Amino acid sequence: MLSIPKHNRILKGEIVLTASKSESNRLLLIRALCDTSFPIHNLAAAKDTQTMIALLESKSNTWDVGPAGTTMRFLTAHAALQSGNTILTGSERMRNRPIKILVDALRTLGADIQYMEKEGCPPLNIQGGKLKGGKISIDGSVSSQYLSALLMIAPKLKGGLEMNLTGKVASVPYLKMTLRLMEYFGAKWSWEGSVIKVEEGTYIPKEFIVEADWSGASYWYQMAAFASELDLTIKGLKQHSLQGDSAIVEMYERLGVHSEFFKDGVRLTKNSIALPSEFNDDFTDCPDVAQTLAVTLAGLGIGGKLVGLESLRIKETDRIAAVQNELAKFGIKVDAEGDYAMIIHAGKLSESALPVHTYEDHRMAMAFAPLAMLLNNISIEEPEVVEKSYPAFWNDLKSVGF
Length: 402
Description:
Elements: E1 2-5, E2 10-16, H1 21-33, E3 40-41, H2 47-57, E4 62-64, H3 69-81, E5 84-89, H4 100-108, E6 112-115, E7 124-128, E8 134-139, H5 144-153, E9 161-166, H6 172-184, E10 189-192, E11 195-198, E12 208-209, H7 214-226, E13 229-235, H8 248-253, E14 257-262, E15 265-270, E16 278-282, H9 290-300, E17 303-307, H10 319-328, E18 334-337, E19 341-344, H11 362-368, H12 372-375, E20 377-380, H13 393-399
Parallel strand pairs: 2-13, 3-12, 4-5, 8-9, 16-17
Antiparallel strand pairs: 1-20, 5-7, 6-7, 9-11, 10-11, 13-15, 14-15, 17-19, 18-19
Helix pairs in contact: 1-2, 1-3, 1-6, 2-3, 3-5, 4-5, 5-6, 7-9, 9-10, 9-11
């Protein structure tokens, strides 16, 4: 349990933000597929990224990804491509997270993959080296990580890959990030309508510097929205980013936070607009910041509807149910519309003696911690979960007066 006192709403200082694990993990897979290694600077300190580094260097044929979803999906495709036998497993939650869509696509390309426990979920027994190129159809509405895993191995497939996307494609900016990184390292691709084609080819080694993490930045934007006095610099962010979560710049501009970009980051100050009476937005392209916005609205006493949340039920936890449960402790009612939307009811935030339960989800811990600015104190269970994406989070909070 961690108690987080904050006795004022002043937010001033400078934060050197953790690096993007989304970029880092894609770069690690591309480097593993490249015939020659290359330097990647500013790799994420996130546990997910460190797990991926360790497994790609491991001599064992059993890879335990723990709770790292991106790592599980990317390494499933990687193991199917490489010759030899690999067993991929993970935490209890990971062994209940679906991976059937990716496995079915890989099987269409010739992969020999067997489920070892629950049908459609890890652990997987993969007999690699049997993949061939060709055409596949895949549901793009569930997770862009399935698609990214397939795209990154595509240049190594004989004849390349033609992928027909069905359904409403989720997290398009993450898909575009994958393709742009592939292109930087020499891959050739096209995307017309619902079809993405990747040519057979070779990745070209090049040096790369990883950008700071916009998902991690979202919690600082949340604190900025709660602040009465604000002058915060966040180092390492780019205005024109590959990361879809940079959409928070526009969202928080509507919630009183102005972003002024400079060469090496962004300065946050208050703007002069009145807060809206209600806030509605679509998170299809940036689902990882939906929790942050839900708790921000609750803290500001603003109601709203957040849509495009289809992937949240199958994340580290059922994030829709988790937000409902934890905001209820503070007197805020949240309704769910199936897997699609959360409706936040405007209300006055009440103090709670109950700690915030994190459900082993790093984003629950970080989305609720900023409420300390409004309630003077808040308690977080399992604070170590932040290691998954932002290990320095609690120290960074201390540096600005928490």
